[in-house]
Amino acid sequence: MRVLIGPDTDDLAVVYAAPSTPWLRLNFVGTVDGAAQGADGKSGGINNAADKVVFDTLRELADAIVVGAGTARTEGYRPTSAPLVVVSGSGRVPPLLRVAEPGRVLLATHAASAGLAEAREVLGADQVLVQGSHQVDLPALVPALVERGFRDLLCEGGPRLARDLLAAGAVDELCVTTVPHLIAGDQVRLLTGEQVEVPLRLACLLEEDGTLLARWFVGRG
Questions:
Q1: Burial grade of 36 (CB within 10 A; 0-12, 13-18, 19 or more)
Q2: Strand, coil or helix: 4
Q3: Alpha carbon 117 to chain centroid distance?
Q4: Are 135 and 87 in contact (CB under 8 A)?
Q5: Are 197 and 217 in contact (CB under 8 A)?
Q6: Domain 1-7+25-62+159-221 -> CATH class
Q7: In sequence order, what E strands does the chain have?
Q8: Dihedral of the CA atoms 64, 69, 75, 81 (nearest 10)?
Q9: Residue 6's Cα: distance from chain center in Å?
């Protein structure tokens, strides 16, 4: 894996180290034409070995992994080495995460969510973060996680949650793997939802066999 722009090192932990904390990064894989999923409706339908190496590195660096409940269900998320923070407007815990060891899965929801009481019963009341009255207060989510000691945060989507975090000004970095592939069709893009304009600065670019792996810093000139 060649570093085209960025630190002169082959140590990916150094290449991807957060420059400061607290820090929230998004990580996505996409095709050249912008699809964030393959024909199977999952990111696994388009990722490759180079993407997996960086994916694993980012997870190893993270204090906690943030993911939307829909993505957790679609991708079949299971407990990981870092605690998972599932963001859910309904307050319902994805099936494969309901049997996690205490403290391995947290749920971020709002006070009016239909599944709030059950989530507290399944995960434990102290593992359910109530952020907002009728929708999840995303700007308040990062400070709430920092209070728990989670300072290096990785968000793996989905595209709607990523868009909303960017719109809320909560994101510091966007990591995108672009695989040398076209897919067309109606696959979901990296971001979905209402228009949002976010300036980016290229901080690092790696390449392996035509796959491009970029780090973009948000709102930094």
A1: buried
A2: strand
A3: 26
A4: no
A5: no
A6: alpha beta
A7: 2-5, 23-31, 64-68, 84-87, 105-109, 128-130, 152-155, 173-179, 200-208, 211-218
A8: 20
A9: 22
pLDDT per residue as tens digits for the range 96-106 = 999 999 999 99
Q: Is 88 exposed, middle or buried (0-12, 13-18, 19+ CB in 10 A)?
A: buried
Count of C-beta atoms within a 10 Å radius of residue 45: 16
Q: Give 220's pLDDT tier (boundaries 50, 70, 90).
A: low
Question: What are 81-125's pLDDT values in tens digits?
Answer: 999 999 999 999 999 999 999 999 999 999 999 999 999 999 999
Global pTM value: 0.95
- For the 63-151 domain, the top CATH level (class) is alpha beta
The radius of gyration computed from the CA coordinates of the chain, to the nearest angstrom, equals 17
- In the chain, which residues fall in CATH 3.40.430.10? 1-7+25-62+159-221, 63-151
Task: Copy the structure tokens of residue 34.
Answer: 């912008």
